[in-house]
## 1
Amino acid sequence: MDGELAHRLGRVAAITLDVEQDCPPYLETTRGMEQGLPRLLDLFAEKRVKATLFFTAEMAEKYPHLAKRAVDEGHEIGSHGHHHERYDKLAPSEAERLVEKATKILRRYTDNVTSFRAPNLKRPRWLLPILKQHGYTIDSSEALYKPPFPRRPRKEQGLVIIPVSVTSSVLRLPWRLQALIHHALPAPRVYFAHPWEYVDMTRENIRLDCRLNTGETALQLLGALIDTLKREGWIITTITGVAKLMGG
Ligand SMILES: [Zn+2]
């Protein structure tokens, strides 16, 4: 990253949601959509934060009022694929069919669907030209904490690549512990979470890190993160907002 870019991105953070069924591929329920997402949208309204919601097209079709509400309240809608498919396991022709299908559904709610996040953060490089061809300008499918390193924000094949900073379960750790992790993260900080983390999953038969502090505790912790970022002078924006600051 050059000096000017580093300066412009000095204290920029994005809050993003991967809007999907509960804890894929372990569950098929949608309690996160019914209870979690409305609570998250309420929190964002209360805190005056605009977020990016990467919807699977399937959830946008099943819960159109939530996709509409997100658009009406000024949030960005991005694509999280059609039904949470693993793009790294698909043939390119099938991947393109699903990108196209999902995009068409999501653009019923807003023309501005130009950001993409692959399910499980598994986006093969060959998908980038396909995304570009379907009008995407931003890909947020990489993670700073996953190899190969380093994974910096950059331009590649005509898209702005903006990696996520930490895994979503970090946002459910006890505050003092997660505060240490946040402090060490470089800008732009890109956080992501899922609606199902904001309903009580503690009794579900899923991995412990998927259950820990879910529900009301998670909501309070996310509120604390937003308050702390604001207090420390961070600009909280959408993933497109981050890309604009990068000059993309
Ligand atoms: Zn996902």
## 2
Amino acid sequence: MKKLADKTSLKVLNRLERYISAGSIKAGDAWDVFSRPDKALEAKVKELKINALELESLKKLKVLVKDKLKSRISGRCAYCKRVMGQHGMSWHIEHIKGKTLNPQFIFDMENLTFACIDCNYTKSSSVDKPNLSHEIINPNSKAFQYSKHIKFIHIATENLHYLRYSPISTEGTATYTKLAFKRLELIELVTSLNPVIRDIATRIDTRVDDLDESDDSLKEFMMALKDAIT
Ligand SMILES: [Zn+2]
């Protein structure tokens, strides 16, 4: 990521890394400075505060990073392969090795990809935890081919979306289970059949998107709400 940064944003990234190493800020909060620079302008914690020049520089960097990552995954979530942008599915920059346990890779492009809000949330709550091994697929690993791990069929008509996954490797099976793909199969079907539910699910996704890194319990509640309605 630093290769894409100009002098100003590079200084911010280096500064944040130093603060993480020193233990004065958490990796998740440092990431928020990059992902939500508008908020960082008003940050109360001095280590997380940026100035107007840095704001503009971080915004430009964010666009460059997103473009680069998008080009790698052909507009689909790196894990579930659903098309990004459909049914309000927003683009989430995803840390393959989770931020909290692997803060040294927080700004490393090789550790970044794009994931849909469902995979992003489920992974952070069921994979990126201490003492859990990271045994799911790594979309950035060398010579990675999705089809060697998971086959999927996705048929979409105007009123019906049918989605089914068949894991065919150990990592594929772990991905299917840990990222709750069964749930995605159900969400896809139910939201395609019922526009009202689809609308509510999309609004929940949008609200979850707006929450800060620290609002874990509210995120958990809202995603459970989405499960309940689908
Ligand atoms: Zn996904």
## 3
Amino acid sequence: MSHFYFALTNPEAMPLLELEMNLRFPELRKSYSRPGFLTLKAEMSIPFKAHFARISGVCLGKFKLEDLKFPKAWVWKREEDLVIPDQLQELSEASMFKMGEKVTLIMMITQDEYWVGEYQLLRTHFQTPGEVSSIIEREVPSRAYYKIAELYESFDLPFDHQERVLELGSAPGGASLFLLEQDLNVLGVDPAEMHPSITKNFYFKHLKVPFETLREDDFKNGVDWIISDINLPPHVVLKEVHRLEAFLEPKGIILTLKIGEEKYLRSLPFYLEDFRKKGFTVDLKYVPSFRQEIALIALRS
Ligand SMILES: C[S@@+](CC[C@H](N)C(=O)[O-])C[C@H]1O[C@@H](n2cnc3c(N)ncnc32)[C@H](O)[C@@H]1O
């Protein structure tokens, strides 16, 4: 008997998602795909969760509009300009799912093509149909504001009042703005210029140097968090983060890793293992504002 699975992602991450499927789930065969939507088939039932997906789960198949009769379901549309039929919009808005519950997700691929999937609602999922970001857009120094805001929301990150954050690759300052709004002290490290609205904040300090030059005496009081969004290959970022983490002993590390090549995707399990060996609980998360990147969240156990 055949089993079907689905994954939703951002169109820019489709090549990474397909590569991940080949590496981690060789028993799955690609069945159908559209930008941002993939279905897969296996001859046996498997536990399926994709890293490079906003949502992944069991696929119940393609449905006609008149057959979409569910007591409750969320509806996601693949493109902004698709118009969800009124009865489905009403169903989606009236449907509530609790943590741990199985969500029925109606996926609108084109104006008259619907697929249905099921996934278990986890704490780290956005509680919205299709994991659409619930963070309101506003004027910020960079898109990185949304990346850290979405990770904060997904993981309910335990930031405490006045904790110290070492932010690597901080310019121009989208993430710094979010961290300052959370009442944190931010030490931003980046050879590039920060946005003036950030540098004038009393709780922000800028070290205008490459992170490879940081030494123990640059830190008088240690740090509680290391956050990085540096646009260098993951192995370069991780080497430096491990060097810094060994003497700074932060309670948590949040890294956005740019996974441009297959070799970095293959290395992900090793990256995770390196943190586990040091006593961290680790997780990966693809948030709605990501492109070809993934967050590694390491929290001291
Ligand atoms: C994606 S941007 C970071 C966006 C930033 N986090 C924000 O919130 O606006 C990547 C940054 O990494 C910085 N970067 C690249 N190499 C670096 C290095 N060796 N040390 C420190 N920063 C570096 C770049 O200057 C760039 O500003």
## 4
Amino acid sequence: MKTSNFPIFTVKSDPSDAEVVSHKLMIKSGMIRKLSSGQYTWLPLGLRVIDKIQDIVRNELNRIDCREILMPLIQPNELWKESGRWSEYGPELLRFKDRHEREFCFGPTFEEVITDLLRQDLSSYKQLPINLFQISTKFRDEIRPRFGVMRSREFIMKDAYSFHASASCLDISYSKYMKAYKNIFNSLMLDFTMVDADSGNIGGSESHEFHVIANTGEDDLLLDDSNNGMNIEIAKEKYQEENLEKIVGKSGMTLKKGIEVGHIFKLGTKYSKPMNLRFTDENSKINDVFMGCYGIGISRVVAAAIEQNYDDKGIIWPKTMSPFQVALIELDSKKNTGIREYTENIYKALKNNGVDVIHDNRDLKLGNKLADWELIGIPNILIIGQKETENKNITLKRRDEEEKREVASEFINDSSLTV
Ligand SMILES: Nc1ncnc2c1ncn2[C@@H]1O[C@H](COP(=O)(O)OP(=O)(O)O)[C@@H](O)[C@H]1O
Ligand SMILES: [Mg+2]
């Protein structure tokens, strides 16, 4: 990829409405742009980060035999009436009518739609278990959208659903998802914790949340020294106490802030019973299906990762979600065609090695180019100008190191340049 055909939209000034560092840096580095309250366009650079996260998520879910589908964004109200949530779910559910006066909503979550899907095809225990997921845009009319894509109205979520013949099968599957989630957040190189949670709007018997630990998090977590614990709603129930200081006193644990990036639920028969999702068991008896559901806020993960990884120059991407592994800066090539030729050779060799590289061939000064790639947060910046072309070497500036250094041109084979 070259900047001549990959637009870079960095900006110098701070956005006026950004309260947290991730929002500020996502605008400045040209990852996102605002359309209206809680709605953002993902620019090419930001979308590459989304793609990296999605690849990791897809890979782990495929490993537990969860298969991808894609459901419609708009849902008919009949299904929500069947589950009882048309009246239960508050104003976050954006409702509207079509030209035939039929009522619909924008999907905030998909339990009703997937339950309806399964009841059309499921009849026998022989078909179970079934595990399905989608990655798609969700809409929730949040009362207070804020922090950019962290709490937006339109956002990208991965939602998975599992279907089982018994509660014990659900338990087994639930642990598999738990393990897959830990693998996902480890692969994303995030400092995270899993806590006991309550089930909120989704419902069911047991649930766990995955939080990225960050001071700007909106959720209070009660954690022990190894960061195990519970969210604050559960803590209040457990210690029969509303006051946070008193909860800390009673529990001997610490309060920390978290950003909820994932949430898993044992739904049991909460949706299958009212919506008649049933199957025939080995003894020809008809039973309700047991269900689980499992969400990850893909777009929120991007913001959460930045909250944990930045400095005064900009973002410092964990390498597994960085939009590129290498930014190759070409300098002064107008003055000297040898520079262009040498850089082009290095670029081709990097590409041949499978390195995810962007070649910055813009006609700008080193200071401006370096500032852009440090703001964008690329782990390795390689610089080639007059001096490097003469010496047949490269100047390396790692994002997490202070000083530049010279390396031999063979450095392009270094394993640190690939994920
Ligand atoms: N308004 C939002 N903006 C961005 N991501 C969201 C938003 N709401 C939920 N998510 C993400 O989707 C995941 C699953 O949602 P869910 O647990 O149903 O939401 P909530 O905890 O807000 O009720 C959350 O863990 C979070 O990462
Ligand atoms: Mg949740």
